[in-house]
Amino acid sequence: MNSTLKKKLHDSLVEILRKTSAELPDDVFEAIESGRKIEESGSSAKYAMDIICDNVGIAKRKSQPLCQDTGTVLFYIHFPQKTDFDELQNLIKKAVVTATKKGYLRQNSVDSITGKNSGNNIGPGAPVIHAEPWKKEDFEIKLMLKGGGCENVGAQYSLPDSRVGAGRDLKGVEKCILDAVQNAQGKGCGPGILGVCIGGDRGTGYAASKEQFLRKIGDRNRDATLAALEARVTEEANQLGIGPMGFGGKTTLLATKVTALNRVPASFFVSVSYMCWAFRRQGARVNKKGEIQKWLY
Amino acid sequence: MALLEKIDGAYQLIEPFTEEKVRSLRVGDMVEITGELLTGRDAVHKWLDSGNEPPESEVRLKNSIIYHCGPVMMKKGKKWVATAAGPTTSIREEPYQAKIIEKFGLKAVIGKGGMGEKTKIACKNFGCVYLHAVGGAAQVLAERITSVDGVFGLEQFGSPEAIWKLKVERFPVVVTIDAHGNSLHQEIEAESGEKLKEVISKIGK
Ligand code: SF4
Fold first, then answer.
1. Domains in chain B, please, with CATH?
2. Is the pTM for the entire model greater than 0.90?
3. Which of residues 166-205 of A touch B (CB under 8 A)?
4. Could you tell me which of A183, A219, B114, B162 has the fewest CB atoms within 10 Å of its CB?
5. What is the rounded distance in angstroms from the CA atom of residue B127 to the CA atom of residue B198?
6. Residue A68 and residue B85: Cβ atoms within 8 Å?
7. How does A185-201 read in b/e, with b if 16+ C-beta sit within 10 Å?
């Protein structure tokens, strides 16, 4: 990469970080808006949804973090085959450092042994970079900022699970997901969005469940069975009456997104990731000159 | 007549905070606070629990409201400004909270996610309430802070853990543990647990 390309790519990455931290994507905001509309006026659920909507507006206007927990920084990238991957990785880290200095990201990366904060969001495993080369000439850069509160309420089930009464079938899967919603109440800053993976191993299952958050809220699963499961679980979860922040109400889940991976016969995992209402994800196509061409969400 | 005035559905809890005022609140009530909040999280709770206390001249804990929050503070000239000030998870302070409520006569504790049995009992016995702020609403809450009137323990605890004195106006919260032994968290959890059983039995084997 020549220095002009590096400079431009760095600036584009910083802009993606800024926008992700300060602005809720339209598809998420629409879902929140519809939740707000169905909550009864005068209820604490409505009150919470009003505050959430105000918060989204202020953060965008002031270009300030939507939530002070700017979370784990996860990149999902496609890059042109001829790109020097080491250089790209270094550029991403540099952009994260810049974004931290500018206050788009909080100092949020702590050494797990010493407890020391690195101060710049860089360290082993931080940021998380998933990257694959592709045949195109431009870059696709997607970013997710996932807060700690909602990450803490993710759950993984190994079927059969007698506590939940879940066997090794789709009904069992459905029960596990609902159990996870019940246990997350009040903790993950709901209303939430679920990403679920059926199968895989413990590692790939969780990773795939998180990748479900890259899908738009309103999209439809191409697999008809999973599409039906997604709709059913969301509806059932909203019957539980947990509501925004766990105050009670109708809006417990905004959406559920499910995928499946093959498993070995001996294992049957259901991995559930929970995303809070402060669902920060963005993405952009960045051309070969390093300039943002179009936003993806 | 109700003790606290209601504006747009929210009870106005205005300093001075008194036992009578907080005892008039019930779980589920929406409340807006005007007055001083003191931030405090893990380090401060541990420190207070070990028998320490700040000098009265710097921080008046008596009858105060503690806010579980590690704000993002910026110095503009000589003044501090909170750029983000959302609540942090309260349950981490459960081992200490009851004792601190009793010792300092706290009138309210603000945070998110609710607290446990010990805090609930302390609220009932000593006339305190647990108020739930909207998690993640860092910007709305920061805007309701009209001034930062000082800080205690900045060196000792670091910025997010220090005791910041925040003047707030119409700071929005919901009562989730009242001073009468009720916990909205426990109520909702029990109700949704029942509902879950129904839904799961409908799914069948
Ligand atoms: S769960 Fe989400 S909204 Fe709540 S504090 Fe964490 S990042 Fe913010």
1. 6-203 (3.20.130.10)
2. yes
3. 167, 171, 174-175, 178-179, 182, 185-187, 189
4. A219
5. 37
6. yes
7. bbbbbbbbbbbbbbbbe
Q: Can you give the three-state secondary structure of chain B, one letter per residue?
A: CCCCCEECCEEEEECCCCHHHHHCCCCCCEEEEEEEEEECCHHHHHHHHCCCCCCCCCCCCCCCEEECCCCEEEEECCEEEEEECCCCEHHHHHHHHHHHHHHHCCCEEEEECCCCHHHHHHHHHHCCEEEECCCCCHHHHHHCEEEEEEEECHHHHCHHHCEEEEEEEEEEEEEEECCCCCEHHHHHHHHHHHHHHHHHHHHCC
Confirm if A14 and A99 have CB atoms less than 8 A apart. Answer: yes
3 state DSSP class of A158: strand
Q: Tens digits of per-residue pLDDT, A205-254?
A: 999 999 999 999 999 999 999 999 999 999 999 999 999 999 999 999 99
Pairing of strands A192-198, B30-39: unpaired
Cβ-Cβ contacts under 8 Å between A and B: the total is 135
C-alpha distances (whole Å) from A6 to each of A78, A84, A122, A133, A219 are 17, 11, 19, 18, 35
Q: Are A194 and A233 in contact (CB under 8 A)?
A: yes
How far apart are the CA of A141 and the nearest CA of chain B, in angstroms? 25
Q: Does A71 touch chain B (CB under 8 A)?
A: no
> For this structure, is B180 an active site residue?
no
- What span, in angstroms and rounded, lies between the C-alpha atoms of A241 and B196? 10
How is residue A175 annotated by DSSP? H
pLDDT given at position B205:
85
Catalytic residue among B45, B68, B132, B185: B45
**What's the CA angle centered on A115, arms A110 and A118, to 5 degrees?**
40
pLDDT of residue A115: 86
How far, in Å, is the centroid of ligand 1 from the Cα of A149?
5
Quickly tell me which residue has 């246990």 as its tokens. A183
pLDDT in tens, B17-50: 999 999 999 999 999 999 999 999 999 999 999 9
What ipTM goes with this model?
Answer: 0.93
DSSP for residue A131? E
Domain with CATH 3.30.1330 in chain A: 3-22+66-147+280-295
CATH of domain A3-22+66-147+280-295: 3.30.1330
Whether A278 lines ligand 1, by a CB cut-off of 6 Å, is: yes
Kindly state whether B190 is in contact with chain A, defined as any CB-CB distance less than 8 angstroms. Answer: no
Nearest chain B residue to A250 by CA distance is: B192
